[in-house]
Amino acid sequence: MTQQPVSVDPFLATPFAAAFDWLSRSGLDARQVLWVMPRIETVGSFKRHWAQHHAGLATLGPWVQTADRLSQPAAMGPWLALQADLVGVLRQLPLLGGGSSPSQLWGLAQEYLELALRQVLVQKRNTSALAQYCENNTFAAEEAQVVATLAQTYATELMDLLPKPAEPGGSPPVQVVWFDDGETVPGLWLDLFYPEVPLQVFRLPAIEGPQPWQQLGAKRFNTQPSPLVLQVAPDETTQAQQAAHQILEWLREDPVSEIAVAVLDRLAARRMVGLLAEVGVLVDDRTGWRLSTSNVAGWFDHLLQQFVEQGQLTAIAQPFTGLPLEHLEPWAFGKTGNRYTLAQWAGAFMALFEKYDLDTALQPDEAGQQLLTVLGLMRQVPAQTEFDSHEFLAAWRSWAESQRFRPLDIESPVRMVPLLSTRMRQFRRVLVLGCAQSHFQESPPGLLPPAVAQELGFPGPRLARIQKISALYELLLHSNEVTLVHSAQVAGKSEMLLPELMWLDIVLRDSESHTQHWASLWHHTPSSLEIEVREAPEQALQLTALSNSGSMPDSLRVTALDDWKACRLRFGLKHALPWPPQRDEGAMRYEQLRGVFVHKVLEKTAQHMALPGQPVNQLQAWKQTLLDQAQLVWNTLELDDRATVYPFLKFFDQIVPRLAGKLMERQIQGWQFKGAEQQVEHTLVLQPSGASLALKGRVDRLDTRGGALAISDIKFTNPAVLKKRLADPLSQPQLPAYQAMLNSPGAQLDFLGLHKDKVDWVSFPPLSDEYREQGFQSWGEVLLSELVSELNSFFEGKAVWQANPGDACEYCAVRGVCRPETHPAFHEGMNGEEGDDD
């Protein structure tokens, strides 16, 4: 029974004060109340507020649960046992396990188990979300079935892994008080364990829209002025320097005052910690590092790697001193290649540690204690699934990557905490490290769409963002002194300030700030960090052809024309000199396999629907054919290729209805499929020299309608973006090239854009009057005319090619050589269009 929720106004009362006032009016005994809070860090603040509010006149029982603990398994040993069993099952399933590495299998098992645990948690609500998702998503069916089967098969074990209530005195609570920040897990947990207990909810503020930021601006700068400072650094290095500088300034004022560093940018945090260490200031890091980053984890990983490669250990160094063990006898476990259970592997390594006193050396270290703990847990795992040495190494790496630790021996007034851990807490001095929009963007869980994820108790991307925004808002509202440090760019790319902070900046502008980039009321640039740098003139990288026609290739691919249009320097380095390959071309990349898969599915679908008697005017027939052909193409792929292209299958499944509609529309318009993946070749005669080279390509799709021909190219790009690009048709040279190579000046040129938001055909515009007046009949003729003239000038040494900075630079292998970032045109051209081409 939920009593009327109370929405807490952050300007009128803190959530604790509102709850304590309600409790005093209710007449309840505080020792019979269960308090549910967002995070474990809130508990200390809660107890302090309780003591202040009641002045020692009331006793508070230790009866608190936190949402972050409720979403974790209660015991690691049984969890490892389930994970080991599941890895054994997954490696037998071709669709899910085939082609996956041992590490990927352990990651899959972890994700499936987390979903199954949520499924058990929501069973009281009889949710059908997972079953519906399984029904409507062909390629996710086996995935969803695994989760559903896990939840059913291991229902008892998973139920035991749910965090259980701790009930002082063995009696259930008389009342539950829940400080709700939007997480669904506490509600699910309370439904399961305390469905009949009265529930009073205090809803923490969910900050959305500009109005709260207007109120915040008035509160901080008008009603109760207190220092709130924004510092914008030009790059990551300066950002870390500014953060360290601010902390040192606060420490000079008060060496023992606690300083909270709310971390959103982990890279900046690491750099800041290093800078402070150089001047003797240690940082108490409470953000929780991954265990895999610790020295102990690296030492044990190296030990296992040596064992995997050699089948034995012939040299072991001490974990902290690096000194070799004396009198070490060569050590091996069983026969090379044999499989053993987790318990047997862990027992063998624990015995090795004990024999050479390595356990004694590891024990004083926090990460060392965690390593010994997990080996001890593994040694007790009853799972009978057996693993070889490679798989045991993968098991260790998966666990080390999933676990967090923090050194406990650092006593410092400077404490780094996650932003969400600052909620419902007040600080005197706070540094917020990282304020970019990207720091507040969240991704949904990998296996499920947001709606289903939220049904299973995950917050979802929108709610996760609101939680972070709300935590930042409360931090700015209630803390005494706050400095926000933002880097204007990261890794050479612009980083936009969080829009909500830009709203606040607008609120704070006065008449003197209208012409400035930031409001002077809060923006501050530390003068001591400003370094004057004299700009030196730069010489652009240029490319000249080799003598004696040494640069001219025998042939040129049509795909190379994209580079030619984007940047002549890039084209010359890659296709004329050529530039050495920048990646291993042996195995096909995801983008290539994605293209192969879609091209083959569309070709097979077109061939099938062209057969006599097919219901070409029925959308369901097109949809079913696409799904059937996708399954057939999938079955022909090698296991490694399946593993590589597997992430695309969910996307393809989602766009099938829209894709089927566009293919049917094409058929209704009278176009008949003629061919796909057709090889074409044309001899380019350079003018005026008469030298020749072969232009080769492969057309994605050809359609005919009477005597008319349509040439199509498949793009994994939003059709809206393709339409923008066709404002300059020659910037997309492949289709015009095929038009000229097929000697079909009247051919229609079409893109088929495939994107998560839209699927559509996008046609080239008619040839412009300007070119028609010059005697050209098609875009293809214009393109080849430019191509044969420019290639001739370059290969004869009459032209010099240099960089053309723009959006083409973003993924260019040559960028590290020509360094276009300093050119103004580079920043103008980086327009951030979404979608990747194939």
TrEMBL record:
It comes from the Bacteria. Residues 558-819 form the PD-(D/E)XK endonuclease-like domain. This is PD-(D/E)XK endonuclease-like domain-containing protein. It comes from Limnobacter profundi. The lineage of its organism: Bacteria, Pseudomonadati, Pseudomonadota, Betaproteobacteria, Burkholderiales.
